[in-house]
Amino acid sequence: MSSDVLSTTVGGVLSTAVVDAELPLDDPRALAALSLIWREARLLDAKRYEEWDTLWAEGGEYVVPIDPETTDFAGSLNLMYDNDRMRRMRIERLTGGLSISATAAARTVRSVSRFTVAARDESEDSIEICSAQVVVGYKRGETFVLAADLTHRIAFAGDGPRIVRKIVRLINSEDAVTASGFLL
Amino acid sequence: MTVSPEVPDIAALVEDDRVAGTLYTGPELFELEMDRIFHRTWVWVAHESEIAKAGDFKTAWVGRRPVIVSRDRRGGINVLLNRCRHRGASVCDVPKGNGNGFTCPYHAWSYALDGTLRGIPYPEGYENVTEKKDLPLQRLKVGTYAGMIFASFNDEIEPLEDFLGGARLWIDRFMKQGAGFPIKVQGEHKFRFQGNWKIQLENTTDWYHFPIVHRSWMSSVDAETASMLSIMTDESAVTHALGNGHSVSVSVAEHVDLDVDDGSEKLQDRFSHVIEELSKDLPPERVRRIVRSLHGAGFNLNLFPNVAMSMSFFRVLRPISVAETEIRHVALGLDGGPEIVNRERLRIHEHFQGPFGFGSPDDAEAWNRVQRGVTGGADMPILVNRGLGREKPNDLGQPTSHATDETGMREAYAMWKRMMTDVK
Ligand code: FES
Ligand SMILES: [Fe+2]
Question: What is the pLDDT of residues A21-55, one digit of tens each?
Fold first, then answer.
């Protein structure tokens, strides 16, 4: 691959730091990752959570931190910090009909854009993409906006791209975030 | 103070078994509540662990007034109005930090951690006009109990210990979840709902809603955890009215006093990894004591008007307007305790609390619905009569009923009425 791509790989671990890098449009893996992220956005808006689950690699980590700087998710309080088990229970909660807030969930339309490749590891079996997400939600006569920086790490091992880690940094994570019954 | 003409006869709004729907919707009542309740009584502002070191500070609210809670160099705790004495700018704009004091960003008047005005730039213009000693940040009265910091704008207020009264025993019991370690704040979830603050005030000792609203959470936890909360049919799940608006509602009777252990309780399988890790360094009794406390205390304690100590967290309410309230769910851990225990507590907290938890969003949905529904029937009362027929005094003379009964709400509304009609 071209040498101008910034690699922040340290000992095989990808850094989550946001770095400025171009989106290499000639890299098929970057493009595959992008289509996955776009597809994910569509599935989340449509609340097709079971299908959304198939985008994840086994052992995937899904985090919505509160502290805007932290990378120590296990040692901090987060809005969400899901492993496979928690993510699947969450899907069950959102689709199972037992939760009054999920039943009355806001409708959403989200855009994901401003993509950059933050990192690729040497063997190129994973890629980390940063992006901006704007979610417009509507519930009971009110329209609201949530904005977040996303970091997706997408792995290509096995049968196609899968999410191994998704970090959603809401711009208002430290302030009051109102529950609206959908996923980011 | 006289009651303005738009305000109905306040005493008539609260009866023993019901309250008027306008308690959630009247903007003029809300204004009076700020004056007569929030700006007059003891309001919870922080836990001592949040300002552990000299120079530590955090911002908070007393009613609708912004304050700073700080630890000065001598270890003293100060609660200061976050308003510059010059032309009124807020002097501190960050939620927490550590520093030597506060410098107003407008004309750089600088204040010490205890609010003393230390410096005025270019002081020449103030010669013979102003003395620095006359212009400290406004200081509130401060009281602490068991690490809980309360503040009041009312200089004549009764001592905090008297105000807490019958709740003190339960505060002491709540802190036992530290299993010998002091309690510390580990972070907080913050969210808002479109509804009056008293809807939340009622909720903390309302076990009646729990198995209904939290069905989704119940189905996500293991059977042991769910059955621990089989409140509806548990005779030992009781509520006591503690006086001064405070109440407590027991959910897990065997965890009321965590120091008491008859050995009959099996430790939950879900904590086997914690037990294994702790057992490397600690004797079995110690491990057992810590693990039995992981879900917190076996009760919810509601302190009028703005803080609850609920199982393993603090729940703090802040009235924003008559129909909007901010809630903070403060996660607690063991100060100096085993890291694996504190992490487990964080995960338990994330599972239920906050805007993406498996519990809080359903509570918020129910509270929003109360506000929407109540607006539709302004002349219909809110009922708080559940269990009135089976309420009896306990040994301490405290009205006592089943945990699903509305004894706690009746206690809170009696205090509301007392404070709202006391206009001296
Ligand atoms: S308003 Fe604070 S220094 Fe002028
Ligand atoms: Fe609840």
Answer: 677 777 888 999 999 999 999 999 999 999 999 99
Per-residue pLDDT tens digits for A65-103: 999 999 999 999 999 999 999 999 999 999 999 999 999
Left if phi > 0, otherwise alpha if psi is -120 to 50, otherwise beta: which for A59?
left
Q: Give the pTM.
A: 0.94
Instruction: Measure the CA–CA gap between B151 and B226, rounded to whole angstroms.
Output: 37
Shortest CA gap A7–chain B (Å):
32
Q: Inspect the interface and report whether the beta carbons of A180 and B355 lie closer than 8 Å.
A: yes
Tell which B residues from 54 to 113 touch A, by Cβ distance under 8 Å.
Answer: 95
Please indicate whether, in this complex, the C-beta atoms of A104 and B365 are within 8 angstroms of each other. yes
ipTM: 0.94
Token digits for B1? Answer: 């103070």
Scored b (16 or more CB within 10 A) or e, B164-194 reads bebbbebbebbbbbbbebbbbbbbbbbbbbb
Q: What angle do CA A92, B340, B177 make, to 5 degrees?
A: 90
Joined tokens for residue B397:
């003379």
Contact across the interface for B351 and A175, Cβ inside 8 Å? no
Q: Residue B117: CB within 6 Å of ligand 1?
A: no
Tokens of B223: 């059977």
